[in-house]
């Protein structure tokens, strides 16, 4: 590999037709590397070669595919430090986050799908009476999971390791071939993943990676006639356009889109636990994560104390160089995104929110930093409470009783993950069942990595993670015979 990264198409490292563009380190504003700008023709070629490779790869034994994924997991784990260094430089993530939550999770996901799970199951035999279709008899049936075909994996910038690994690993395990289109801000890590898969023995054409800043490149890997499914993680606005394109050709789709997670904090909650959980919004990826509890609904009896403690938590966080071991909050991805987040903070103040913490740009010479910001005394109709800011910003809204909390939480276009903090276990589970969200955390922001992940409403379509990802990247075929 050179400093100027080539594309990966058909098992070959190919020079990009559009040359290279700089990938900027958000912490230093220096160039972290040079990413390839694919042409539309090269994007289409990647899809075509994935189609050619599908015939053979889909017929390999599941054990062979699992072995490749297992070797890839070990190769990624063995290069944890240099891979994490690159991820940190591309994304601005802290060293701890880059190691554990980016590269570490990617290796774990390849390891997870290196196991072989049953792809077929018997269906209860059916007794049929005589009729137009034949005489009386018993029919047996078998349901079989078959690969979808060629999958376009379009990934987000906030985690260039875990997000594509969560798509590529289960897709390959099921016998699909893939074309990965990484986010333009940080594509270099995805090419390192392709290197690991190549070294692990993935056949030519099974994995392809094409990048570029031009929208036309992404459109090409969605629209290609060689593509059977699109798996996308990103904004709801972009996801809607992809879904429309898929709908025209009846392509399968898996959409993990935006979120505006409501965190309901009841008056009997452990406030220390709630503050620590909600506080991850400020620090984890600098709030650039769709699962963050960014919309806090606090029962009035604890509202003042919760705001005070959240503000103190935000003020204590060290903002700065992600390479420093005591840094908690790194930069956001770009200068443009920082401007967007800051505009939302100013909008919140104009809407009547009270600035309880943050609100000013950190005094650092370089880097795209945003201070952890808490907006109190908000109402649910404010734009800062309704729109995804995707930065270290939390809004707090008071509520009276359980019914009002549920109504406020559900009054959103999004429905990815909500949270409930309460000392009353029965109430917490009762409220969780009433929330219109794909997931609910009770007294925790942790996730079970075998639990289905996906959203209601405009937060997405479909479910992945664990065995649900194997379902997502497969079609179900019924085989019937006379008993």
UniProtKB/TrEMBL annotation:
Residues of the Aldehyde dehydrogenase domain: 13-479
InterPro entries: Ald_DH/histidinol_DH, Ald_DH_C, Ald_DH_N, Aldehyde_DH_dom
GO terms, molecular function: oxidoreductase activity, acting on the aldehyde or oxo group of donors, NAD or NADP as acceptor
Record key words, sorted: Oxidoreductase
Keyword Metal-binding: no
Record has Oxidoreductase as a keyword: yes
Similarity field: Belongs to the aldehyde dehydrogenase family.
Record-linked PANTHER family: ALDEHYDE DEHYDROGENASE-RELATED (PTHR11699)
Name of the protein in question: Aldehyde dehydrogenase
């Amino acid at each position: 590999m050179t400093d100027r990264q080539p594309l990966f198409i058909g098992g070959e490292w190919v020079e990009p037709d559009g040359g290279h563009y700089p990938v900027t380190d958000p912490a230093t504003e220096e160039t972290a590397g040079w990413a390839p700008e694919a042409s539309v023709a090269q994007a289409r070629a990647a899809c075509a070669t994935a189609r050619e490779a599908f015939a053979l790869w889909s017929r390999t034994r599941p054990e062979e595919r699992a072995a490749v994924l297992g070797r890839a997991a070990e190769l990624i784990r063995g290069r944890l430090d240099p891979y994490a260094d690159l991820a940190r430089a591309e994304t601005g993530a802290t060293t701890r986050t880059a190691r554990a939550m980016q590269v570490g999770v990617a290796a774990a996901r390849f390891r997870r799908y290196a196991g072989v799970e049953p792809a077929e199951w018997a269906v209860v035999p059916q007794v049929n009476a005589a009729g137009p279709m034949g005489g009386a008899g018993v029919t047996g049936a078998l349901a079989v999971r078959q690969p979808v075909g060629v999958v376009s994996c379009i990934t987000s910038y906030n985690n260039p390791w875990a997000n594509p690994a969560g798509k590529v690993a289960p897709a390959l395990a099921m016998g699909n071939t893939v074309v990965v289109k990484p986010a333009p801000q940080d594509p270099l890590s995805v090419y390192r993943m392709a290197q690991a898969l190549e070294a692990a023995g993935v056949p030519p054409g099974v994995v392809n990676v094409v990048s570029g800043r031009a929208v036309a490149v992404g459109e090409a890997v969605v629209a290609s006639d060689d593509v059977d499914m699109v798996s996308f993680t990103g904004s709801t606005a972009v996801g809607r356009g992809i879904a429309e394109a898929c709908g025209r050709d009846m392509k399968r789709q898996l959409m993990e889109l935006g979120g505006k997670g409501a965190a309901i904090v009841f008056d009997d909650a452990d406030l220390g636990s709630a503050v620590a959980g909600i506080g991850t919004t400020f620090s984890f990826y600098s709030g650039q994560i769709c699962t963050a509890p960014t919309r806090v609904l606090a029962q009035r009896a604890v509202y003042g104390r919760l705001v005070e403690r959240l503000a103190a938590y935000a003020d204590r966080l060290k903002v700065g160089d992600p390479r420093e071991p005591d840094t908690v909050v790194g930069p956001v991805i770009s200068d443009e995104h920082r401007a967007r987040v800051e505009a939302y903070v100013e909008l919140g103040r104009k809407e009547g929110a009270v600035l309880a913490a943050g609100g000013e740009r950190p005094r650092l010479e370089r880097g795209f930093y945003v201070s952890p910001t808490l907006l109190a005394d908000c109402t649910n109709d404010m734009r800062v409470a309704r729109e995804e800011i995707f930065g270290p910003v939390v809004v707090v809204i008071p509520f009276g009783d359980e019914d009002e909390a549920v109504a406020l939480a559900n009054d959103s276009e999004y429905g990815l993950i909500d949270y409930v903090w309460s000392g009353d276990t029965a109430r917490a589970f009762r409220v969780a069942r009433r929330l219109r969200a794909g997931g609910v955390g009770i007294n925790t922001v942790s996730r079970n990595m075998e639990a289905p992940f996906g959203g209601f409403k405009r937060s997405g379509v479909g479910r992945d993670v664990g065995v649900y990802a194997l379902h997502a990247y497969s079609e179900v075929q019924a085989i019937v015979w006379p008993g």
